[in-house]
Design goal:
The structure is a homodimer. Chain A is of the alpha+beta class. Chain A folds into 2 domains: 94 residues, Orthogonal Bundle (Arc Repressor Mutant, subunit A), CATH 1.10.10; 54 residues, Dna Ligase, domain 1, CATH 3.30.1490. The first copy, chain A, is 39% helix and 21% strand. Chain A has 5 helices and 5 strands. In chain A, the strands form 2 sheets. A 3-stranded mixed β-sheet of chain A has the order 4-3-5, with no helix packed on it. In chain A, strands 1-2 form a two-stranded antiparallel ribbon. The interface between A and B is large, with 46 and 45 residues. The structure holds a DNA duplex.
DNA sequence: TTTGTTGCAAAACGTTTGCAGCCTC
DNA sequence: GAGGCTGCAAACGTTTTGCAACAAA
């Protein structure tokens, strides 16, 4: 994957993708990317949309369109824990982390593990170029372990 | 996690969960579990529902209800690649595998990796009792790598 | 000038819910 | 009996779509 250490390089990655695929460099697109860069952790399309209204007017449809585009570039990950709405999370400017998901109550807990990260990232594949990954470990949190 | 080597032990796990949580042992529940045991790989609620109509009549609502219940027991995993509908996959009677997901076209490829499996399964957590996991590695398949 | 993108509103769709009757327990 | 579960159909809420106006190339 390309360098994404600075916001400028993230923007460059997105721009390059847009140009290469005959998409237009609209103000909405960059405004959305800038907002995402400010959000740590998970967010929904609706929340991003509402957040943005304060200083940049975009339609919810455009938010959805562009979350999709950013997901395709690998700059964004889409989670769908349990049900709707989908949750998004940027893959840049963040520590690689994994998710513990309680199968009963849906509670999510994040953790980091260098060894796990390195083991996963060290893999090579034929005919597949990896950019990032998500690991969900399912089981039971303390409150729910009694159900089984 | 409990033994799930035979279908009888899977059924026992489910039954135990039902009893422990004051749920009823209805014929629909066991019919659904039996059908799931026959499906290799991913399936949707709709497909399971249609499959079942040939020899057991259940409503779609009950299918949803019970997929939810089985997900809570950890016997079933719910995937939500891209968008709707959700795809389910049993966690018993299957080799542990991982998913390569193309961020552009959504194509899924499964692979197995003993080292990866063992590394992930070796982890212990405070206040969390793991039962199974899913690893999605995102990137680009051969047909789509040109977009970036 | 061409054509991709936008905002808006309506539509689509999977999933959930309310309810009356049924059947576990 | 009590109350959880079922089927049915209607409702819900997120996401997608159609379309006319706009603006990037």
């Amino acid at each position: 994957m390309k360098d994404t250490n600075t916001f400028e390089s993230v923007k460059a990655t997105f721009t390059e993708y847009l140009v290469k695929n005959q998409h237009r460099k609209t103000p909405e697109r960059f405004a959305i990317l800038e907002h995402i860069a400010e959000i740590d952790g998970h967010f929904t399309a609706e929340v991003l949309y509402k957040n943005m209204q304060t200083n940049f007017r975009v339609s919810l449809a455009s938010v959805y369109n562009n979350l999709d585009l950013l997901t395709k570039t690998g700059l964004l990950t889409r989670h769908q824990f349990g049900s709707h709405p989908a949750e998004y999370e940027r893959t840049f400017h963040t520590n690689v982390h994994h998710h513990l998901v309680c199968s009963n109550c849906g509670k999510i807990k994040e953790f980091t593990d260098k060894n796990l990260k390195e083991t996963i990232e060290s893999k090579n594949f034929n005919n597949f170029l990896p950019t990032h990954f998500t690991l969900y470990i399912y089981g039971y949190c303390n409150k729910c372990k009694h159900i089984m």
